[in-house]
Design goal:
The chain is of the alpha/beta class and 382 residues long. Helix content is 37%, strand content 10%. The protein is built from eleven helices and eight strands. Strands 2-1-3-8-7-4-5-6 form an eight-stranded parallel β-sheet, with helices on both faces.
Length: 382
């Protein structure tokens, strides 16, 4: 490991303003989760490390947002945000239970995008070797002309388009339980961004996409990689798929920047999904991404889905500690009392899948691997 990665300069890009709004009273995405995470990070001492800085995010400009979104759609979001009535908002995916409208939605989303842009700028300028913007990533379903899946403006697409414009090749890895369809769409015809999404199969879960056959178009053929998994896939089988696909493809692509979306709705207690990862299984993935980042030299990370508040707080605290090369203790600090029964960072794993179900899961995942090896690997000489 190079000296830069023994105590890597790590930026944690966040402000509590990103947690202080509500999509709707019943909405499963609760931005308050970020405050719980932040307080756990502070109590754990991760933010006090000498190699961890906490820069404030900037606000994305409208010009930056329009690099990836239709100006008419951006105007509708801005008008609604300012209190206007927009009868045609349904055309843009707005006003649904997933994407309710509210005052201030443009401003909070622009700040979220700005946090991701701040992280990417710190890394690409060399001021940090790794930067984590946990409010980002959750917009990975947002499309150029419509909101989708809790996402309004796609911060990952916006940030990576800026990197590509600067002449950088980017490897994007999305470990959210849901397929990163908006990010895939944003770079579907590009050979400068390798998008890899490992997720619960769209056969069972929103957005119903992310099949292996979605491999890109034009110059981008082969640069869109999907790893759909069976429901109830647990840590060992999830990592078996990760190991066989992601490191060899990333190394063959030879990116200038690693960009990771770290959704933790893969957790076995998540109320919206059906994968069965533990916090330690999640953090092992972050450690493996970190090993790839050492070779690449630049690592931008964002958050994503995650609807069990304890899993979010613990997992993203563990992730930041991993990025900073810091070993957390097993026990969570007793001074953290915002969430009840949060005593350890690691989970007691769920019971193993019963044999018939385990065989079905492994057979489904093996079929995915065979398809990837047939359709994607030859493009990279693998």
């Amino acid at each position: 490991m190079t000296p830069d990665w023994q105590q890597p300069k790590t930026a944690f890009v966040y402000t509590d303003e990103l947690s202080q709004y509500q999509l709707s009273p019943e909405h499963p995405l609760r931005p308050i989760r970020l405050r719980y995470m932040h307080e756990l990070m502070k109590a754990s001492g991760v933010l006090d490390l000498n190699n961890v800085d906490s820069p404030a995010p900037r606000i994305a400009t409208r010009k930056e947002i329009e690099t990836s979104h239709d100006p008419e759609y951006v105007s509708i979001v801005e008008a609604i945000s300012n209190g206007a009535i927009a009868p045609g908002m349904g055309e843009f995916g707005l006003g649904t239970s997933d994407n309710p409208v509210r005052r201030g939605m443009y401003d909070t989303t622009a700040l979220c995008i700005g946090s991701t842009l701040t992280a990417s700028e710190l890394v690409t300028s060399g001021k940090a070797v790794v930067a984590f913007a946990p409010a980002g990533g959750v917009h990975h379903h947002a499309m150029p002309r419509n909101a989708a899946g809790f996402g309004v403006f796609n911060d990952a697409v916006i940030a990576m388009k800026a990197m590509v414009k600067a002449g950088l090749r980017v490897a994007y890895i999305d470990i959210d339980c849901h397929h990163g369809d908006g990010v895939q769409m944003g770079h579907y015809g590009s050979d400068q961004v390798l998008t890899i999404s490992i997720h619960e199969s769209g056969q069972w879960l929103f957005p119903g996409t992310g099949y292996v056959q979605e491999i890109g178009v034009g110059d981008g053929i082969g640069y869109s990689v999907n790893i759909p998994l069976a429901p109830y896939t647990q840590d060992d089988d999830w990592h078996a798929m990760f190991d066989k696909v992601i490191p060899p493809l990333v190394r063959a692509f030879k990116p200038d920047v690693l960009f990771t979306q770290l959704g933790i709705d893969t957790h076995f207690r998540d109320p919206l999904t059906h994968l069965s990862l533990t916090t330690q299984g999640f953090n092992l993935a972050v450690k493996k991404l970190g090993l790839l980042a050492v070779d690449i030299g630049k690592w931008v990370a964002v958050g994503g889905g995650g609807y069990d508040l304890s899993a979010v707080a613990r997992s993203w605290t563990m992730a930041l500690a991993t990025m900073a090369n810091y070993d957390l203790p097993d026990e969570a600090p007793k001074s953290f009392t915002l969430l009840s029964n949060l005593t350890n960072f690691a989970d007691v794993p769920p019971a193993p899948n019963e044999e018939p179900y385990l065989n079905d899961i492994q057979n489904f995942n093996s079929g995915t691997l065979d398809e990837i090896r047939s359709m994607i690997f030859p493009k990279f000489g693998l």
